[in-house]
Amino acid sequence: MSFALDFSAIEAVMLASVRMVAFLVIAPPFSHNAFPLRIKAMLGLGLALAVAPKVTAGYVSPDTGGFVVSLVQEIVTGAVLGFLVSLVFSAIQSAGNLIDLFGGFQLAQAFDPQSMVNGAQFARLFQMTAIALLFASDGYQLVIGGLTRTFTALPLGGALRLAEPVRALTDALGQMLVAALQIAGPLIVVLFLADAGLGLVTRVAPALNAFALGFPLKILITLTLGSIVFVVMPRIVESVTGNSITQLLGVG
After folding, report:
1. How many CB atoms lie within 10 A of CB 225?
2. What angle in degrees, to the nearest 10, is found between the helix axes of 37-50 and 139-153?
3. Helices within 106-138 (DSSP H only)
4. Where are the beta strands (DSSP E) in 161-201?
5. In the chain, where the domains are located
6. Backbone φ/ψ region at 138: left (φ over 0), alpha (ψ -120 to 50), beta
């Protein structure tokens, strides 16, 4: 009894798994260090087997040099796609950083080795909330679905044109900055008005030492109004997930 192995199909699945693993290492929510690298590799291989009928159709096995070049191309492609998703989702973390900066929490900045986030309370809290909502709302399935559809726009062994990823990175960076200002903008305006009001009080009554009262007042305002952001956080995560999928499909 003999078995015939299709080495061309095996090569296609391995190249697809390389793109998957490179994406999962960088893109949220799978980039969190709570996921061991072994689990990411197993997940990437499982996803590659799921898209095997798509990637093996029409794949022509190259020589050894061509296979090495295709392997490097898939690593770069997966890393670029993962960075695009990470850049879009960083809008939530950037909004938390802005709230920490204007609310006076930036002095308690620390590095979180699990999520690889360097920020204060609101930055890390927003990041953990976004990851939790991605899993609770099955948003991670949309991200994986967008990744699997990239094999149609960017087939295995196809050259990645640099113009489209650079354009997508530029668009994602602009969307990240705008989204961060939209999320944290109202609270920043309120904190700015509070600082302006404290400055006027100091001019009227210098002995009142209004700036000493300003720190607990700004903390109270930040904690009170910051809770409103959590009410709309599911819609924010939904919008960010849709933007990330759009960026994934736009690279091809």
Report:
1. 15
2. 60
3. 121-136
4. none
5. 7-251
6. left
Instruction: Give the tokens for residue 56.
Output: 């093996």
Tokens of 29: 């929510």
- Chain centroid to Cα 203, Å, comes to 45
3-state secondary structure of 4: coil
Phi-psi region of 227 (alpha: psi -120 to 50; beta: other; left: phi over 0): alpha
Residues 6+ apart with CB under 8 A from 122: 96, 97, 99, 100, 103, 105, 222, 226
3-class secondary-structure state, position 162: coil
d(CA 251, CA 77): 10
Residue with tokens 């990411």: 40
Structure confidence by residue, pLDDT tens digits, 160-206: 666 666 677 777 777 777 778 777 878 888 888 887 887 777 777 77
> pTM surpassing 0.90?
no
Structure tokens at 70: 């295709």
